[in-house]
Design a protein that fits this description.
By secondary structure, this protein is of the alpha+beta class. It has seven helices and eight strands.
């Protein structure tokens, strides 16, 4: 059973207003689509898991007419669930059609990042997988990150860092911040990525939290 791990990039003019807004904010750390139902009446019912500022996420939902109803759980351990009724658009319909063909299974979650990027896993017949890549709508580009035989028990370690967090961690490694004894400072990281020391420290702390949480979760055999 073949699978693809894909990164999709959606043109800015086609992005959902909520994803566009929170992608430009440092207040949301993770945005995962866990499940969804596309109904025939033009409305989509979606369930997200979000880590970050609950108020900032609510503001993004309130700022668009596309979200008709929503419910947010109380935050717990840094995260909350968002259940919402969303008005579909032509791109949503085309994407649903592309992924709903016989012989394919979309494996949740779908994770959204800044810059209109989303990562997902889809498995099935090799011919159908190729058809999917060929039939993606205009304005949506795909990069195949991994391909092979699907095995849910052995997923690639992926803490879901933002590009800025990855940049900060790479700069920290290069500066010797993680050496023992430490030979680099947060100020060195800040100089390398062009930001204030406080901002660099925040990027590193969020990245370290995500990595440690993913490591412990994987080791415990639980969901990511």
């Amino acid at each position: 059973m073949k699978y693809l791990r894909l990164t999709l990039r959606v043109d800015s003019a086609l992005r959902h207003p909520v994803h566009q807004r929170i992608g430009e904010s440092d207040e949301i750390d993770r945005d995962l689509l866990l499940a969804g139902n596309t109904a025939t009446d033009g409305w989509d019912t979606l369930l997200f898991y979000v880590e970050g500022d609950r108020g900032a996420y609510r503001d993004a939902l309130e700022a668009t007419d596309r979200v008709a109803e929503y419910e947010l759980t109380e935050p717990s351990d840094g995260g909350f669930y968002a259940y919402l009724k969303d008005e579909g658009d032509p791109l949503d319909e085309l994407m649903f059609e592309a992924f709903s063909r016989t012989g394919l299974v979309l494996v949740p979650p779908v994770e959204f990042f800044e810059g209109g990027r989303a990562t997902l896993t889809v498995l099935g017949d090799p011919d159908r997988l190729q058809e999917l890549l060929d039939d993606l709508p205009d304005g949506v580009d795909a990069t195949v990150d991994r391909i092979g035989e699907y095995d849910e028990r052995a997923p690639l370690f992926d803490p879901g860092l933002t590009s800025r967090q990855r940049e900060a961690v790479a700069a920290a490694v290069d500066a010797g911040y993680y050496e023992v004894p430490r030979s680099g400072t947060v100020a060195d990281v800040a100089d390398r990525i062009g930001c204030a020391a406080g901002t660099a420290d925040e990027h590193l702390r969020k990245a370290e939290r995500a990595v440690m949480r993913e490591l412990v979760t994987r080791g415990a055999g639980g969901p990511a």
